[in-house]
Amino acid sequence: MNTISSLHADRRRQFLQHIGTGIAVIPAAFEQTRNDDVDHEFRQDSAFFFLTGFPEPDAVAVLDAGRFTLFVRPRDREMETWNGYRAGVDGAVDRYGADDAYPIDDLEAVLQDRLIGHSNLYYAWGGRLDSRMSALLGKLPPLHERFGYRVPSTIADPTPIIDELRLRKSPAEAELLRKASEISAAGHVEAMRYAAPGLFEYQVQAAMEFVFRQHGSARNGYPSIVASGANATVLHYTQNDRRMEEGDLLLIDAAAEYGYFSADITRTFPVSGRFSGPQRAIYEIVLAAEKAGIAAAVPGATMRGIHQTCTRVLTEGLVDLGLLPKGVDDSIAMHHYREFFMHGTGHWLGMDVHDAGTYKVDGEHRRLEPGMAFTVEPGIYVRADREIATFHLLEYDLDEWTERRLKLGVKAARAIEAAELEEAKTIEHSVPAEFRAIGIRVEDDILLNATGNVNMTAGVPVEIEDVEALCHEVSGLAD
Ligand SMILES: [Mn+2]
User: Fold this and answer.
1) Total domains in the fold of the chain
2) Range of the domain at 253
3) What is the mean pLDDT of the chain?
4) CATH number reported for the structural domain that contains residue 39 in this entry
5) Is 264 annotated as catalytic?
């Protein structure tokens, strides 16, 4: 067996320790039609791949203490001629380490027998296998209970168990993530060299993604955001079709996937090679916030704590530049900074770019542990059309608002929030013109170790002088 399959075997062992005498049925992803007989690019479901390493659609894994069984698309000369190779039943055993394997159409017939003797079934409702599973389960009791066999009486979602395993990266997993980070960093470095006024955003995207592929990444971890000028103030801009102009900043949020792990990098740099004064002023604040956030990322800290650290540094800078109407403490208590920094500071990172795992445990913010990986990504976004910003003079606690949403439901809680803001006094503040249409984010990928952290994406420059120097280098891909 190669390293990849021993990685999956280790994960299955850990998963089985959690489900005890239960049995788990885990479906693969299905193909999604794009149009006519053309599908969207297929990418295996991360939880399924985590446990199996099996990359094909229309498969199901069945796991219990006794066996790892795969149900797969059978070999089919004609289908394979048109649509690509299949491992088939033999390949599932030989190449993916299944103890036994069957054609996917045999799922119900085989499961009927496999479920006997298990009182707990682990299955996540809400997918395309639901109708087959409920039909099967509906048939089971009359078949077996009257003869005294035990059939599942409890159905539990296996997702929280798998998510907890995914949250803590083993050394082998951390190595894949590190490699994805390294490849992604190389692409960003090339993008800084390649970008120039007159090019379209998608041309810079192509140069960067060429380097991802060249370094061994078969696909991106998520659609690339290549946002120049005012487009950088649109958080999830993916049109990437604007022609860049002299003096623009270019914000690129993009990363490669490697071994089913994704990095997540953002850099913002001047396409002409030099930051303007206002661009530099905003950039310095964002960079200071990012550094403070990374320094705060140690075992025992929380993602919330890192966010608060970044938020304070950003707010101090926004107050200094005259973007906010009140002082630092009021701007934080009244959340005025959210006019310019409206997202969280980071998220778990792994097989999915926004990876599995809860941020709270038993109502408390989760303490960070060695092996956890996440992003630190503060930003400031000043909309082009925001000449006057309105700020509410109301202190509130975001955690309390979240709690209220859980208690009352989002719709009712939002109505209360709106009413509270409606009643509050407001202050109008003119946004200095030189900062409008600037959007800057800096994002790195952090892996916690026993004493602190490693910045896995430090290979892309962040300091202003280093960024400007790299922007002046000539890309080998140009012309
Ligand atoms: Mn991110």
Assistant:
1) 2
2) 168-387+431-472
3) 95
4) 3.40.350.10
5) yes
Question: How confident is the model over 39-65, as pLDDT tens digits?
Answer: 999 999 999 999 999 999 999 999 998
Fill in the amino acid letter for 9: A
- Whether 77 sits among the annotated catalytic residues: the reply is no
Residues ≥6 apart with Cβ < 8 Å to 441: 232, 251, 253, 266, 268, 286, 377, 378, 379, 381
Asked whether residue 412 is domain-assigned, the answer is: no
Would you call 18 a catalytic residue per the annotation?
A: no
Q: Are 70 and 59 in contact (CB under 8 A)?
A: yes
Catalytic residue, candidates 86, 168, 274, 343: 343
Cα R_g (the chain), whole angstroms: 25
Separation of CA 303 and ligand 1 centre (Å): 13
Q: Are residues 159 and 55 in the same domain?
A: yes
Catalytic residue from among 56, 253, 257, 355: 253
Global model pTM greater than 0.70: yes
Taking residues 332-358, what's their average pLDDT?
97
The model's confidence at residue 144, banded by pLDDT at 50, 70 and 90, is low
Residues 437 and 233 sit within 8 Å (Cβ to Cβ) = yes
Residue type, 345: T
Q: Is residue 240 part of a domain?
A: yes
Same domain, yes or no: 45 and 117: yes
Catalytic residue among 188, 381, 444, 468: 381
Q: Judge whether 323 lies within some domain.
A: yes
Q: pLDDT tens across 203-215, in order?
A: 999 999 999 999 9
**159/246 same-domain check:** no
